[in-house]
Design brief:
Blueprint lengths: L12 H16 L3 H5 L5 H8 L7 H10 L13 H18 L3 H13 L5 H18 L4 H15 L15 H13 L6 H14 L4 H20 L7 H21 L5 H21 L6 H24 L11
Length: 322
């Protein structure tokens, strides 16, 4: 009798993910409690890491993002239900991008009715999309803030404690907290909060792509708030502001992304113009030339980008949700 050679079976996709998740968590020295907080029980995480419990793509993404890994960098197969969820989200984003509000609302309601293995992350997405619709329609700030607060507390229940005890958050969760902080009623300390989140991202586990998704936006919000105030900036503050802008732009350059690039160029141009004026007024003529060259290069790049966006019918400014 001829013995048949046993075929070696590849582990199921969830096992590959479980192995990868365990490895990244161990290398990053992140506790199970920190990774699971606000997302699931530690026992559920343990079962996921043991490949005993299947996990949907949206939750896989969230866990990887918390560990600082951009989901685009991890290749894995989608189940039919995962693809269905992705397709629903994609259609919603496209409808909002087109500003087709009735269609966006219909699609959100359709997605909310869809059965999901992870309703918490799905609810968060829907609330954020509803908040984006309210922003585009000029709704009251308190109503927008209410949606963002509800979205935040789904996975970051003790959001106020973040500023006292650092929590492990994904770039998407940082984005949601940032929007909530901007729209809530007592947002007088928003500039301070932006500085906190800039430091948080710089010191986080995030890879460069994850940082590029959120850091430029925080910098944009920071300068938008700062420059909206009438107080003139001192020389040291202007120089520091220029460094912050340059850091954000360098991050975009390194990752080949353009998130909020036009906005950053506009802020940078304003800072450089103010800096040159200050140097002229204070007779620092020998230092002006290098800043004038930088200002000219900044203006040229800004004009080129705006021209390209207009030529290819691409919105010049970033839309937060897309």
């Amino acid at each position: 009798m001829i013995k048949q050679k046993r075929m070696r079976k590849d582990p199921p996709p969830d096992q590959y993910f479980s192995m990868f998740l365990r490895q990244v968590r161990a290398e990053s020295d992140v506790s199970a409690a920190d990774l699971a907080e606000g997302l699931m029980d530690i026992s559920q995480l343990s079962r996921i890491e043991s490949a005993e419990r299947p996990v949907c793509k949206t939750m896989r993404n969230r866990m990887l993002e918390r560990l600082g890994v951009a989901p685009e960098m991890y290749e894995n197969l989608l189940r039919n239900e995962d693809y269905e969820e992705w397709e629903c989200q994609h259609k919603i984003l496209c409808a909002i991008d087109r500003r087709d509000f009735p269609e966006a609302v219909r699609l959100i309601e359709e997605y909310e009715a869809l059965e999901s293995s992870d309703s918490k992350v799905k609810q968060q997405f829907c609330l954020m999309m509803r908040a984006e619709l309210l922003k585009l329609q000029g709704a009251e700030r308190t109503e927008i803030a209410r949606h963002y607060e509800e979205a935040v507390r789904l996975t970051v229940p003790g959001v106020e404690q973040v500023y006292v005890k650092t929590k492990l958050l994904s770039a998407l969760e940082v984005n949601t907290v940032l929007e909530y902080e901007y729209y809530r009623e007592s947002a007088s300390d928003f500039v301070f909060k932006c500085r906190f989140w800039m430091d948080y991202v710089k010191e986080s586990l995030y890879d460069e792509l994850s940082k590029a998704k959120i850091y430029p936006k925080i910098v944009h919000y920071y300068f938008r708030e700062m420059m909206g105030k009438s107080t003139a900036m001192s020389l040291s503050v202007m120089e520091q502001a220029l460094r912050i802008c340059d850091e954000a732009m360098e991050l975009l350059r390194n990752t080949g992304r353009a998130f909020y690039l036009v906005e950053l160029l506009e802020h940078r141009g304003k800072i450089l113009a103010d800096l040159i004026n200050w140097l002229v007024e204070n007779g620092k003529m020998q230092e002006i030339k290098k800043y004038e060259v930088t200002f000219r290069e900044n203006t040229e790049l800004e004009e080129v980008l705006k021209g390209l966006y207009v030529a290819y019918d691409v919105p010049i400014y970033m839309q937060d949700c897309t």
